[in-house]
Amino acid sequence: MLDRGRLFAMARKETLQLRRDTKSLILAFVLPVLLLLILGYAITWDVENIKTAVLDFDNSARSRELVDMFSSSGSFSFTHHLSGEAEIAPLLERGTVSLVLVIPVGFAADLGAGRPAPLQAIVDGSDANTATITLGYTRGVIEHFSTRVQLNARRFTPPITVQSRVWYNEDLKSRNMIVPGLVAVIMMIIAAMLTSLTIAREWERGTMEQLAATPVSRAEIILGKLLPYLVIGVIDVATVSLLGIALFGTPFRGSVLLLAVLSSLFIVGSLSLGIIISVIARSQVLATQIGMVATFLPAMLLSGFMYAIEVMPQPLQLITYVVPARYFLVVTRGIFLKGVGWDVLCIQGIIMIVFAVLGLGLAIRVFKKELR
User: Quick one: DSSP state of residue 73?
Assistant: First the structure.
């Protein structure tokens, strides 16, 4: 049976220790903001201002019209106008340009006669992701140009008109999906690292003997140590979310209350994981290293934040089911971008509850009030 007096006395003791520990305060309040700023600005899947060179053998009004359409698309930046094929390889080898557009002689004549007009696009494939996106943009511009030429020449209306509409992320900005994901990743890392130092700190400072001699139960010790960090975690979620909205323009369409509740459950589970690491390691340095490996790598690589889970090898896909950040990522993106509620996030919500209860139970079980 928990004693409220002993529980809050334990929480007050941990708060006083935390206030005197400058490194932990920096880890708690400064590191989340730094991670958001660094990762938020550094990670992007948008490809803009693609450096492009053009080799125009035709030098006609039509070829210049095509080049103008590439420039006006907003994705391409023409930096070089070449005079011969020998100039292509050195530019691509040095990475000076990512795309070379080659317009052959007779391009305008073929278009005027209604014949297929060949066009060559040479892309630097050393970065496969950028190359794929560049080719997609290139095809889009060329298809738009081809349609306009047909309409001007033959004056017909295409039998099928496609009108596409993107929901939830209308501008297709990668930061709109990165920032909510960072909330999940950052909190997984910070929460586990904060509490991974708590029990280890007691052992290193020689205060575990005093704890063992008190009538405080194991549950009261663990819960008392978690309470201050739970408050810090909620503050960090609010801070990171508000900064993400203010700095990156990420939309927030959902319920603040639902985000707060599910975030609290996730934080409790992550804090409990840190406690377990601290109990096992019994050294602050070792606990920090284990905490980083156990949280940072899975949260970044196996949660669906950096890479889609569907394209991972089957064994890795199975491992992702035990990564809590995978489910919290769905929560943050769903609440931020889609504005969905409990009816949609109920499965993830139940998993958050299980994560919190299971983590807390294991932390209490593995902690022993014994001197070994």
Answer: T
